[in-house]
Amino acid sequence: MMTKTSPRSDLFMFVLFSTAILTMPIWLAPVGAGYPDLLQKFAIFGLFALGFNLLFGLTGYLSFGHAAFLGIGSYAAVWSFKLLGMNPLPALLFSVVFSSLFAVAIGYICLRRSGIYFSILTLAFAQMSYNMAYSVLTPITNGETGLRVLQSDPRLFDISSQTSGSLISNLFGIEMTGYPGFYFCAALLIVGFYISQRIFRSPFGMMLRAVKSNQNRMSYTGLNTRPYTLAAFVISGAFAGVAGSLLAVTDPLAGAERMQWTASGEVVLMTILGGAGTLLGPILGAGLIKYFENIFSAYNEQTLHAIFSFLPDFMEGPVVSLASLFVGEGWHLTLGLLFMVIVIFLPGGIMEGFNRITNMFRRKRSQVGKGTGHSRSPASATAAE
Amino acid sequence: MDAIVLQILNGLDKGGAYALIALGLTLIFGTLGVVNFAHGALFMLGAFCAVTFNHLIGLEQVVVDPTRTTAWGTPLEIRMPYIEVWLGDTGTAMLNYSVPLSIVFAIPAMLLVGYVMERGLIRHFYKRPHAEQILVTFGLAIVLQEIIKTYFGANPIPQAAPDIVRGAMDIGVFIGLDPGTVVYPQWRIVYLLFSLSLIGGVFAFLQFTTFGMVVRAGMADRETVGLLGINIERRFTLVFAVAAVVAGLAGVMYTPILPPDYHMGMDFLVLSFVVVVVGGMGSLPGAVSAGFLLGTLQSFASMNEVKTILPGIDQIIIYLVAVIILLVRPRGLMGRKGVMET
Q1: Triad A342, A346, A352: Cα angle to 5°
Q2: Which residues of B touch A109 (CB under 8 A)?
Q3: How many CA atoms lie within 13 A of A302 on its CB side?
Q4: What share of residues in chain A are helix, strand, coil (percent, to 5)?
Q5: Which one-letter DSSP state was computed for residue A114?
Q6: A3 pLDDT band (50/70/90 cuts)?
Q7: Which residues contact A101 (CB under 8 A, 6 or more apart)?
Q8: Are B95 and B58 in contact (CB under 8 A)?
Q9: Which residues in chain B touch residue A272, judged by CB atoms under 8 angstroms apart?
């Protein structure tokens, strides 16, 4: 399914997207999401999902181990902080290099198989990285405690080398917390969006879509698809690496739990929720999930009682106890249910939902136009269909 | 020699659990063509069947004895499980044997769970792409896991094996080694025997019953069996339920070895999938033998001698083997041609 696009509409979309991202602090304030920590998460996980979508959305290869690249990116960034100083730019470079290298190695092996084998292989690699980060690689990853930047680290290029106070990543004197941190992430998200838009419109992207629709036919025409899928895998791994390093930039520590399969599952959910294979969908999905995670985990029994206080007493108790299953600690239950509901009823995600609704209106309108000629009301026309 | 025997034994009981889960996964995959990421959750549910059963028969009657007081001066409460009050010594024995007895409770419970899961959810996913099957069962696994966490808490709940098999056994004597060299917990032996007999039971069921014949035929060519006028869907529902029971029983009997907690299912699932892939998708003997093989390999890798040469190998050996097998023999050890080739 290709929608008609033109360079002009792409440019328009890009400008609109950039404006929307940069003005997020303003238009998200009324819904209680206009504070920098959450906005940073929106941008970071948006980037993560955007990269994942380049693989899953375009080629249809479902990777269940993408969180490994996120973790590798984080570790690389923290090591860059430790060795080179708190500037985020070398950290980004390090993360991209390392996560791409890992992606080349893992992708080279995993992409020999497709379908469910690919999912299991990527899952196996992610679990392997996770287990190793916890046990053998403790000198590099600092095991369960997680890797942090210490005052005693060399940090070669830090001129000031302050010996006290907390260590915060800073870009030539701008500390990467709060709004500056958010704008840094947002800038990278916009760059990522631009790259992904270009890939979507390029012959390369077309090739990836062809892989998704029928890989056999591609091979029969004498085309080796593996370089294309590998390229997609590496690009999407690099995106995940950048997202991981941004996590470290906004909060300079890295832990192995970022690589766990739950984290991989979460990015799959974000992409599916928004709509795999669409440009905006994954970012939308990532934003929604992080937003609701934030809201839902903050609720507790008291807030629920306050919300449902309009109900009569005999109903309030059961309703509150039922609702409390899904909030706070139970947020994962909601996430799982959401996962199932989306896959069952709306496999194309929210973007498909939008498309369905707009199509419905469009069809109605065209039928209204026709309907006058046939002297039938639009309602009966849709009912007859 | 004794160290090797010990490690083989160590691997076999873990391998038994892998083999049982992988067997169910392969059954479901071979018949229904569905990739069930919730199978680990079924294993976990089975384990919690044992916990529930233990809770149920352990319900206590509290009698306050006004004539005696405790050291704090409050009236002495005499707690006694109802089952002992009603059945006397039989009740005590039942409490002791709560884990094996909970099989009786777990079979109908898991049959029901399997039936509801298949009819309610999986059935609608036969024709959908594998990616969607993976995703929806993954979501289901999270939901089941979180429900268990809500009711039983996040901490592991240890279960005791019956007294008679709680101790250790000198295995080495039987095979001509010096006494005291290979001493092994008895319950693990019981688990190994149990898993072997359960596997044997499933194979016998498939091999010697008409029902099993239809199922095997369905695994080979589903459409033709349907064309012959056999209601394959209904049989496959039962296959799903049987696979759920197998996973559940594996979980029930595993509780004395590993105290069950809510995420045990996922830990086993990832490994079981690797087992299925190594054994060959759609091959039942492959799944079983790969289960035992990988279990044993893992326990060998966790020997201190091996660990000093290759540190951390015990954590990754299974994945490493899977990667190598998939590269060398893409179909797995005993994979059939034409199953999940694309």
Answers
A1: 125
A2: 323, 326-327
A3: 1
A4: 75, 0, 25
A5: -
A6: low
A7: none
A8: yes
A9: 135
Question: What six digits make up the tokens of A150?
Answer: 């210490």
- Taking the model in full, what pTM does it have? 0.83
Q: What is the pLDDT of residues A83-141, one digit of tens each?
A: 887 788 888 998 999 999 999 999 988 888 777 788 888 888 888 888 888 877 777 78
- Residue type at A385 in one-letter notation: E
Contact A339 B134 (CB under 8 A): no
B155 touches chain A (CB under 8 A): no
Cβ count near B153 (within 10 Å): 11
CB contact under 8 A, B143 and A128: no
Residue A313 CB contacts under 8 Å (≥ 6 apart), including other chains: none
Separation of alpha carbons A79 and B110, rounded Å: 49
- Report d(CA B110, CA B184) in Å as an integer: 31
Q: pLDDT tens digits, residue range A325-376?
A: 777 777 888 888 888 888 888 888 888 888 888 888 887 776 665 544 444 4
If we measure between CA atoms, which residue out of B259, B202, B252, B295 comes closest to residue B42? B252
Question: How many CB atoms sit inside 10 A of residue B338's CB?
Answer: 9
User: Residues of B163-192 as b/e, b for ≥16 C-beta within 10 angstroms?
Assistant: eebeeebebbeeeeeeeeebebbbbbbbbb
> What interface predicted TM-score (ipTM) does this complex get?
0.79
Mean pLDDT of chain A: 81
Residues 6+ apart with CB under 8 A from B202: B23, B27, B242, B246
CA A229 to chain centre: 20
Select from B249, B240, B51, B35 the least CA-distant residue to B141.
B35
Count other Cβ atoms within 10 Å, centred on residue A230: 16
Q: Which residues of B touch A338 (CB under 8 A)?
A: 139
Q: How far is CA A144 from CA A58, A90, A256, B197, B256, in A?
A: 36, 26, 7, 40, 27
